[in-house]
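quick one before i forget lol
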Amino acid sequence: MSAFAERLAEAGIPFQRQPVPERQDATSHGNMVVSLGPEPVELLWVGHVDTVGFSDEEQDTRLDGDALYGLGTADMKGACAAAIEAVLATVASGVELDRGLCVALVVGEEEYGDGAQTLREHVQAPRTVVGEPTGLAPCLDHYGYYECRLIAKGTKAHAALPEFGANAIHDMLAWMMEILEVAGGPETPRGVVVNPREIAGGAGGFVVADSCEALLDVHAPATTSREEIAELIDEARARVRSKARATSLDSEEMFWAPGFCGEPSSPLLRPIRAAFEARGVPWEPGVFRSHSDASLFYRPDALTMICGPGRLEVAHTRHEHVELSQVREATRLYAAMIHEACVRKTHGDAKENAWQTE
């Protein structure tokens, strides 16, 4: 966050530190918010500055040709840098904003979005762009996300005589395999993606394990409800129980964020599409298949779009990277969005200079 703050301070652009409840300690400064132009806000750009946990090996940052490698480069420091540079270019162009702009860098996205929740309480706009990695494709559709804990309880027995007990680990594995079978995967009509994230159980010693827990991540198309996902898990549990096992199987929902489907013909898209056309970036709407802060900002009467440099498939991996050429194009694209959404056509000459600056 400090690097972005220094860049803005050098250019004389004011910003605010927005406290986030329960994060007021020496290691967190909360959100950073840049507001330009008059109220109300017409365009809100949101990016997150936190990353997943890392090891020393994953933390290594290097430049290989045009690709910058390192944790968080795609998810999503590249987009954050592009948005800040777009603000700098807009201010440097001298153009007057007739409508409000807010660019917010938030914390907590890789957890449960407390930074975005705090921002939403103070700022909402008819157009919100979230800079998650999409390869600069405009994603109007967003998957839902369901997180749950599976709990299996069995009966201890001597390890040499497992038939006298009920192995909780064995039945947990069976349950998880049934869930994967019932879900079917992203290429099936259901399109649900299940990821077994953690599994732990047993008590040590030479005994049959009497307890086991597992965490599941479930990403599903926006048309899938939380009830449908819960039913999927219940169906898999019924399949396991039909095999007359003695283990108790229970599930606990931990988190749910619904997905959404944008309206491709919405008039709110006009300035956004105009920005794509001005930059010569193909308008090929896609689907964002992960969870993000975008789900917190979606409203049926507004536009929420995900668009940023980088690829989702390399995020959270040892090989995470972003192409700097795409970050530079993201800067120009974001600047074009700002001008199309926040500047009246009477400012034409200055409007062009901001996003055409190389």
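fyi The CA atoms of residues 142 and 288 lie 5 Å apart.
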